[in-house]
């Protein structure tokens, strides 16, 4: 009788364990279930830096010249050339110079353009921004600027051309002294001309039909 | 036997009470279920980054993350394309419109970017049409001559999101419709001010679980009582 009672008691414990443990396990698992999410992600991380416009002169040479002047250059702190200086003390009617500079893009994609300045005094110069017509009227100098894509100067750079990083392009400055009716007013005068090539943001216009607005 | 009983029941009771603790202090009734969740697994099988401008580096450390470093100016834009694939084998997923968040830098610029999304599919992985992904081409500053058969983005035939991707079937050559194409157009507008400092823009494509519809009604479960 005692033995049968013990057996019955054991059976009730087993039942108790089953009834208690299984719901408790379910409740515990449920707690974990709520904490999880049923979603997944694909992530694109874009590091967007401001475009940096940096160019330097890596070479220069005179393609044609009929005077007695000479060219020197000034270095930037990093050793690159940032200014070519051409000096001539005997500019005469018919004087002409074609100076080529090799320009290297060390920054972002960019467009190149140029600005003309002149000064009626040289020491120190007092710069006035002008254009080709203004330069001619002021100092009798005809100026023509041309950009090329290759060193042999056969491929003209199209307008608004995107200069890619690490690309070289070539800039031709062509100057002809043609004082015309201004001579002898321009006789024995000193003046300075500066052509500044600037790198700026590329023009997105040609590509706006391809998804841009 | 008693010791075993105590050793089992007490930890289990504690764990269960911990789970019930929150609901215990709130009024009302609750039904809790034993659940084990499925891990969704959606990634990109391949990707494309297209921009007319040359500067840009693209790197995918895994199938879930794409890292793009580039330089931005007013008017800059890019197209980012993915073949997204449900690698999971249990549940389908819905792929929804991505979100865009600036996580470092000037956060006020997040509204400055223009973005459009184009969804295509679903298909089996091997039947993604070339004209919505492989042939999509954007002219660059160095290459403006479209190759034969090139498609300018966005390719036609996009569908509204979300796109449902079936789970992958067993083995290669699965016939499940587990793949889709997503093209994202992102632009820094022409009239926006030039960026002054670097920013990090995170594009998150969230995929949510979309289980098949129920085949057993709740009525069927009442017999358990």
Q: What does the model show?
A:
The complex is a heterodimer of chains A (about 210) and B (about 220). Helices cover about 20% and strands about 40% of the residues of chain A. Chain A is built from two helices and ten strands; from the N terminus they run αβββββββαβββ. Chain A has helices at about 1-35, 130-140, and strands at about 40-50, 55-65, 70-75, 80-85, 95-105, 110-120, 130, 140-150, 170-175, 190-200. In chain A, the strands form three sheets. In chain A, strands 2-5-9-8 form a four-stranded antiparallel β-sheet. In chain A, a hairpin with a 5-residue loop joins β3 (about 70-75) and β4. The longest helix of chain A is centred in the first third of the chain and has 34 residues, at about 1-35. In chain A, about 20% of the residues are buried. Chain B is mainly β and about 220 residues long. Chain B has one domain (about 40-210). Chain B contains one helix and ten strands. Chain B has one helix at about 1-25; strands at about 40-50, 55-60, 65-70, 75-85, 90-95, 100-105, 115-125, 165, 180-185, 200-210. Chain B is globular and about 80 Å long. Classes of the chains: A alpha+beta (about 210), B mainly beta (about 220). Chains A and B meet through α1 and β1 of A and α1, β1, β3, β4 and β9 of B.
Name some characteristics of this structure:
heterodimer, A: 213 residues, alpha+beta, Immunoglobulin-like, four-stranded antiparallel β-sheet, three-stranded antiparallel β-sheet, 40% strand, elongated, B: 225 residues, mainly beta, 1 helix, 10 strands
Layout: helices, strands, pairs:
The complex is a heterodimer of chains A (213) and B (225).
Chain A: H1 2-35, E1 39-50, E2 55-65, E3 70-75, E4 81-87, E5 96-105, E6 111-119, E7 128-130, H2 132-139, E8 141-148, E9 168-177, E10 192-200
Chain B: H1 2-24, E1 42-50, E2 57-62, E3 65-72, E4 77-86, E5 92-95, E6 99-104, E7 114-123, E8 163-165, E9 179-187, E10 199-210
Antiparallel strand pairs in B: 1-4, 2-3, 4-9, 5-8, 5-10, 6-10, 7-9
């Amino acid at each position: 009788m005692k033995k049968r009672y013990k057996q019955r008691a054991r059976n009730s414990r087993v039942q108790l364990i089953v009834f208690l443990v299984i719901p408790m396990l379910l409740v515990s698992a449920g707690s974990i279930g709520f904490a999880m999410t049923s979603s997944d992600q694909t992530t694109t991380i874009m590091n967007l830096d401001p475009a940096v416009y940096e160019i330097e002169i890596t070479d220069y040479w005179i393609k044609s010249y009929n005077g007695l002047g000479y060219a020197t250059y000034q270095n930037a702190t990093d050793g690159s050339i940032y200014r070519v200086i051409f000096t001539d003390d005997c500019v005469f009617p018919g004087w002409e110079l074609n100076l080529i500079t090799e320009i290297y893009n060390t920054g972002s994609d960019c467009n190149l353009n140029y600005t003309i300045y002149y000064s009626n005094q040289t020491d120190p110069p007092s710069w006035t921004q002008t254009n080709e017509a203004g330069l001619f009227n002021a100092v009798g100098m005809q100026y023509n600027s041309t950009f090329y894509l290759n060193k042999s100067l056969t491929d003209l750079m199209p307008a608004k051309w995107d200069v890619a990083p690490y690309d070289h392009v070539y800039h031709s400055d062509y100057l002809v002294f043609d004082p015309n009716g201004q001579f002898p007013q321009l006789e024995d005068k000193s003046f300075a001309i500066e052509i500044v090539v600037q790198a700026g943001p590329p023009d997105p216009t040609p590509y706006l039909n391809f998804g841009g607005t | 036997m008693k010791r075993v009983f105590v050793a089992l029941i007490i930890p289990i009771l504690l764990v269960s009470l911990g789970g019930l603790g929150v609901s215990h202090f709130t009024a009302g009734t609750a039904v809790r279920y034993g659940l084990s969740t499925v891990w969704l697994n959606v990634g990109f099988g391949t990707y494309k980054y297209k921009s007319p401008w040359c500067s840009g580096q693209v790197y995918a450390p895994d199938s879930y993350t794409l890292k793009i470093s580039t330089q931005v100016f007013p008017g800059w834009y890019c197209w980012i394309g993915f073949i997204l694939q449900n690698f999971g084998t249990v549940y389908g997923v819905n792929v929804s419109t991505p979100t865009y968040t600036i996580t470092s830098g000037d956060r006020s610029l997040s509204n400055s970017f223009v973005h459009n999304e184009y969804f295509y599919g679903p298909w089996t992985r091997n039947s993604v049409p070339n004209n919505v992904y492989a042939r999509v081409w954007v002219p660059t500053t160095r290459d403006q001559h479209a190759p034969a058969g090139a498609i300018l983005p966005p390719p036609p035939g996009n569908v509204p999101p979300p796109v449902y991707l079936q789970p992958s079937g067993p083995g290669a050559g699965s016939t499940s419709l587990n793949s889709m194409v997503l093209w994202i157009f992102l632009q820094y507008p022409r009239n926006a001010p030039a960026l002054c400092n670097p920013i990090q823009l995170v594009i998150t494509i969230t995929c949510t679980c979309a289980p098949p519809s129920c085949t057993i009604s709740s009525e069927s479960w009442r017999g358990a009582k």
